[in-house]
Amino acid sequence: MAQELNALRDKIDVVDRQLLDLLAQRLVLVGEVGEVKSRHGLPIYAPDREASMLARRRVEAELLGVPGDLIEDVLRRVMRESYASEKDTGFKCINPALGKVVIIGGEGQLGRLFGHMFGLSGYRVETLEQGDWPRADDILAGAGLVMVAVPIDITCQVIDRLGKLPADCLLVDVTSVKSAPLEHMLAVHQGPVLGLHPMFGPDVASFAKQVIVCCQGRLPEQSQWLLDQMTIWGARLQQVEAKAHDEAMTLIQALRHFATFAYGWHLSQEEADLEQLLALSSPIYRLELAMVGRLFAQDPELYADIILSSPQNLAMVRRYFERFGEVLRLLEQGDRAGFIAAFRQVSSFFGPHADQFLKESRLLLAQANDRRHYG
Fold first, then answer.
1. Cα separation, 325 vs 319, whole angstroms
2. Where is the Prephenate/arogenate dehydrogenase domain (predicted)?
3. Residue 6 lies in domain
4. Which DSSP letter does residue 235 get?
């Protein structure tokens, strides 16, 4: 038996090495594709091409007896690495006549990320940090784009400190609140203004498929070049009014972060044995626990600022607290029928999204389980 297994495992090792060679060849080809895209100003993420390629590979795989889900999982992981590799070739500069790009807070994590992307696109990038304000006028002189990338709690204060910018300079902020920064930018600058909210952290390997929310302020035709540039980087742009953005963020960010914080706080006060929880957990609980732990591996000031950034956030948290109490009362009263009725009401609210989320979560759980190692 041992000889049989060893012989088969040796053959598998040979195939694995062939796979490695093929993956290496693919990455070389991806680099060449990136160079062509860079020269012609094509986005690194082409959704139609990706969808059609995956559909073809699924059909071809199934004809060979290979599950379609398997080849799609493999290819999606390979493509994620490919997108990260493509950016190393740089990007076409959409607006070569633009003056310099000045990023206020450019030494921060998000500021450095955008500075890097502008640099890869051929723009001249300078930063303005806290100690540079005495010479801010010199730094901002000749700027074609000024980006404010500072913490939420001081964004409006920093905007108010800006002196007279060149008339055609595009003024942009990248904070997670949009209404107030836009109002302040429109007040201090008479030229083009645009509000951006990158829906990702500074640790992303690529902008491919990453969402950037765009809230128009003034003269949208003069900010179109930046939208085109970010599209070339691979970002998915979502245009929305500032008020609607802020209302959505109370649920997407503020409430979600608060609920995660509260659960982590509860675990710490219960002195839960995390190692035991992990050892006993199903893939879904391990993934949920990972998302909770992820929050506490990051900057607490950032999350405090997000949650406290608007009275609407606190009002939403209060309503969540009250509804939590409503459900708790159902359980305290032993109202099984009431709980089931409430469950069905929520299920109806989610509608077809529930089945979609069930399918997506199964893939996530399978991937999370694949990474578990039992020594």
1. 10
2. 99-361
3. 1-86
4. P
Q: Are 160 and 190 within one domain?
A: yes
Residue 133, by phi and psi: left (phi above 0), alpha (psi -120 to 50) or beta? alpha
**In terms of domains, do 236 and 254 share one?**
no
Supply the pTM of this predicted model.
Answer: 0.84
Nearest to 123 by CA among 210, 229, 204, 34: 229
Quick one: three-class SS letters along 166-195? Answer: CCCCEEEECCCCCHHHHHHHHHHCCCCEEE
Would you say residue 234 lies in a domain? yes
Q: Based on C-alpha coordinates, what's the Rg of the chain?
A: 25
**272 and 305 assigned to the same domain:** yes
Q: Are residues 114 and 205 both part of a single domain?
A: yes
Same domain flag for 148 and 72: no
In Å, how far are 15, 115, 130 from 95, measured between CA atoms? 47, 15, 28
Q: Tokens 């010199």 map to which residue?
A: 138
Cα–Cα dist 238/170, whole Å: 19
Quick one: 42 and 126 in the same domain?
no
pLDDT in tens, 42-81: 888 888 888 999 999 999 999 999 999 889 988 888 888 8
